[in-house]
Amino acid sequence: MDQYLDLFLNYATVEKGLSGNTIEAYGRDLTRYADFLEKSGVDAPDRISPSMIVRYLVRLKEEGLSPRSRARILVSLRMFHKFLFAEKLSSANPTVNIEAPRSLNSLPRILSSDDVDRLLQSPSGQSPLALRDRAMFELLYATGLRVSELAQLKVSNLHIQVGYIMTLGKGSKERIVPMGESAMTALTDYLSQGRPQLGKDILSPCVFLNRSGKGLTRQGVWKIIGRRAAQAGISRKITPHTLRHSFATHLLENGADLRAVQTMLGHADISTTQIYTHVTRERLKKIHEQFHPRA
Known about the structure:
Elements: H1 2-14, H2 20-39, H3 50-62, H4 67-86, H5 113-121, H6 128-143, H7 147-151, E1 158-159, E2 164-168, E3 174-178, H8 181-198, H9 218-231, H10 240-253, H11 258-265, H12 270-273, H13 275-291
Antiparallel strand pairs: 1-2, 2-3
Helix pairs in contact: 1-2, 2-4, 5-6, 6-8, 6-10, 10-13
């Protein structure tokens, strides 16, 4: 099956223009799938039946993978088999009627406004790293960027004077995202006072640099947020995506249009954005239960 996997990954890279992170995820999921097929004695796409797909998903469940992880893998399998069928490399798509594992609609975790303030204020002082972290947090919360988009952000993508940034999202789709005064001020301070000290020996196009003057990695951003959250006294686990979820939810809670939020997040399908309307409804329900005398 390796030859079919190589053909698909090449198609996803060259023709679909998917990001490196997405290609890596597809490759990881499908390599694991190909190993399962090989051990099952399958060496051609036409020998893969729907029952075999179900058996593979059951195997993943037995190995302890969550419904969300199994559903993500099923997306990879669907893309793979859809490609094989479209290219006439198989006579059918065995994933057509396979339902995704349930409990995918668990609501995203968000921060309260108070916790957001505590996190944004945690990098105190005027050191280069404090200026960097403050600008990074302000920008994440102001724009809802994905961590990969933040790590890949170039200085040339910033348009601070007019208050917006350009970013490349999934599928290399470019979008414009506005940012507020707080993010603009924090970025200006970092670019003028912090970044020159971090990048004085290396000419990097990236906005956010590590101690060595090189662009921060996604993993680096995760570690910084976790450390700063602990400093701020936030006991729960915080990730870059928590700020993205909080950005979207707080916008909707304050009356933003769902389509506008979809555009800012870079979601191709509005159904993806609609999860945040469920979040706001759940929060209203909890407030009602907490404060209404007859709840």
